Amino acid sequence: MAAGLLLLVCAAAVLYSAEAQDPYNELPETYRRGVDLASEQLNSHAGVLHHFRFLRSLEKSDIESGFGVRYLYHHFYLKPTRCPKGTTDSNPQSCPFRNDRPLMDCAVCYKIAADDQIQSSPKPYVHCIQKPRLTQEMRTTRTEHCKKMSYNSGAPTLLAVSTG
To answer: Residues 99, 61, 116, 19: is their CA dihedral positive or negative?
Structure first.
């Protein structure tokens, strides 16, 4: 009886620790919104047959623009799972990763207002491609697009206005 109870407690602890260590859940909410945006776009493609889960972040930046406005950039990997596309369950136990398909390399940049919601203007930028197909030119294009987005905010021109 005691051995059975101990086994049950150990199994529960393993399941709890696996869920607690889900990298998606460890992301700040503002970055999770960008991952969700990329996942939605990925799932909208007819050629995508499997559900993808967040694997890990490669790079993150958060640029304060003033008046509660921030520009976020997030470069991360999504990994395919054994679950079919459209699955809403991202539990690692019920939707395990596949190791026979390439990772999706994703970059997103978007504007967040004081209410921590993604703004529609400028339009959020989302780019995901299978990791082996990502070229240096694509990486450069991603970076340049996101840099332009944060610099086109108009904030610098406010400082240049003459009041005299």
So the answer is: positive
